[in-house]
Amino acid sequence: MSVLVQREAAAIHEEWLGQALSTRPADRPAAEAAITGLYDLIGLAPPRFHWVSSPAVAVATLPPGVRPRPSEAVERLPDWPLPPRFRAAVNALCREIDSRLTPAQRSVDQVIRQRVRLSLTRSAANVLLMQLTAAHGAPAQLGSSWYGTQCVSWVAHYDALRRIGGVELPPGPAGRLGLWAAAARSCGWWWPREGVCVVSERPTAVHTEPWGDAGEVRPHHADGPAVRYADGWEVHAWHGTPVPPWVINDPGAGRISREPDAEVRRCAIERVGWGHFVDRAALRLVADAPDPGNPGARLRLYDLRADTRVLFVVNGSVERDGTRRRHGLTVPGFLTDPVEAAAWTYGLTAEQYSLLARRT
Amino acid sequence: MNLTTVPSPPTTPTTPTMPTTLDHLERSMRVPVVDGLQAQGDLLVIPLSVVAPAVGVWAGAGWTDVPPEGVELLRSGAGGNPHTLLAEPGTCRWTTTVRDPDVLAIGVFEATAVAYLLHPEHGAVGCAPGTYVVRRQRERDGHRARLVAD
After folding, report:
1. Locate the DUF6745 domain: which residues (chain A) (predicted)?
2. Residue B7 domain-assigned (yes or no)
3. Residue A316: which of B39, B79, B104 has the nearest Cβ?
4. Vertex A231, ends A152 and A86: CA angle to 5°?
5. Cβ–Cβ of A315/B140 closer than 8 Å?
6. What is the predicted ipTM?
7. A197 vs B142, residue with greater confidence
8. Is the CB of A360 less than 8 angstroms away from the CB of B102?
9. Could you tell me which chain A residue has the CA closest to the CA of B79?
10. CA distance A105 to A169
11. Domain-embedded: residue A270
12. Are B25 and B124 in contact, with CB atoms under 8 Å apart?
């Protein structure tokens, strides 16, 4: 039973992850019908729809002739009047379905919550929020926000409960769940204002990599934008970290050295490889020393900038391809001894770190 | 320092937290048991005596017995690849109520038999009976500090 549930939950997770990362053009009639139904749920007449090519455009535009209300300015999204009403409708629907669960279904519910809902929330946070943050120019959050209400994770959870938990819903809640599922399946994010709803197309390309034990993904593309929309709006990402395009397209040693953001710089260095960067940037070797506990490997300390040095370390264990991974750790510029620098990374003195018996 | 070699650590293959990619490392080697400092990638296992009294367990700390499936100490930057503390039932307890001026300690474990730290990519670490603090690794770039997650 449990193995079967796990397997089916994984399949439903895959299916909904595919929806969340879909690059198909929006099904506009289906999306408008679903969103109209959701407006009706909270007692509102059908909105006027304004389709846009990307989230970046969505947060910047309204349809011609529509004057933005101050309370519905995009930077005040958390305070918009409609999202809390949609949220309340979702909460009521969830409570209604939860209250119908039998004890046996509750145990399946736990599996689904973990295997479907949580992992989809994580992937959505990684891949989708990155785009929304870029579009807003400010951090976007899932949580209890409007974007969380639209996240496929809770829809997928209840979809899975019906399909593998044997939960049967009466027409009312089934219909409401169906509206949210249809909206999630047919378009990108949407921004509901009173009388007008801005809806985004989906991206034309999404590149991700596995990130986690439960099928989660994060954005990553080493050779181009991780997410691209038809209007040319792009977001680049290196192993889950959003980066400026140059990090992927043109990561020269000089540019890397001038980059003020440490996280961006780290991604750019990883993009070209630490060894390559050290060679190209002609970093000055401050000192090197044997790595205690790591026979044959040396610790190398280089100048990076005025207040920062980089310690080159070699992993103690071999990779699957037989090589040992080398990587650089940035350390304070006052450190002069590689062993002291390695010790500092773990909050130890050089004498303490010298006791290292083994590194794997 | 005491250095002995024992067979591979206990495995509980049905538990989901168990690493599944150790095969390239573990099948071909035996895990040394060490009572000194050991680094496993971005984690360092330090005998508590090395860093005491600066680092220590708060009085009244709650201790948890390490369960059969182990304790996941830290996930990697890629989300998977957990560092997992494993021990035979009843031989190891664990607390996170730790005083550490550098704020790098994840916790302290106290083992009366050999305890192991497993990681899917780094080799396994065997710890002789004793009390150890497990610390993360940090970086600093200019004024910006970050914890390493490899």
Report:
1. 176-354
2. no
3. B39
4. 30
5. no
6. 0.81
7. A197
8. no
9. A212
10. 13
11. no
12. yes
| pLDDT band at residue B67 using 50, 70 and 90 as cut-offs | very high
Q: How many domains does chain A divide into? A: 2
Yes or no, beta carbons of A213 and B37 under 8 Å apart: no
Distance of residue B39 Cα from the nearest chain A Cα, in angstroms:
5
Assess B119–A contact: CB distance below 8 Å, yes or no. yes
How far is Cα of residue A106 from the mean position of the Cα atoms in its chain? 29
Q: What are phi and psi of B57, to 5 degrees?
A: -90, 135
Q: Measure A146 CA to nearest chain B CA, in Å.
A: 26
Question: Whole-prediction pTM value?
Answer: 0.74
Tell me, yes or no, whether B44 lies in a domain: yes
Q: What's the rounded Cα separation, in Å, for the pair B85 and B19?
A: 11
Query: What is the spatial distance between Cα A296 and Cα B73, in angstroms, rounded to a whole number?
Result: 29
Give which of A298, A352, A260, A300 is closest to B104, Cα–Cα: A352
| CB contact (8 A) between residue A327 and residue B144 | no
Domain boundary among A183, A203, A223: A203
Do residues A81 and A191 touch, judged by C-beta distance below 8 A? Answer: no
Q: What is the pLDDT of residues A171-193, one digit of tens each?
A: 999 999 999 999 999 999 999 99
pLDDT value at position A327? 80
For B38, the closest of A263, A308, A357 (CB atoms) is A357
Residue A46 maps to a domain: yes
Flag whether residue B72 sits within 8 Å of chain A, measured between CB atoms.
no
Average pLDDT over residues A251-266: 85
Residue A259, domain member (yes or no): no
Token pair for B4: 């002995």
If one counts the domains in chain B, the total is: 1
* Domain carrying residue A196: 3-203
Instruction: For residue A147, give the nearest of A235, A241, A59, A233 by alpha carbon.
Output: A59
Q: Compute the nearest-CA separation of A320 from chain B (Å).
A: 7
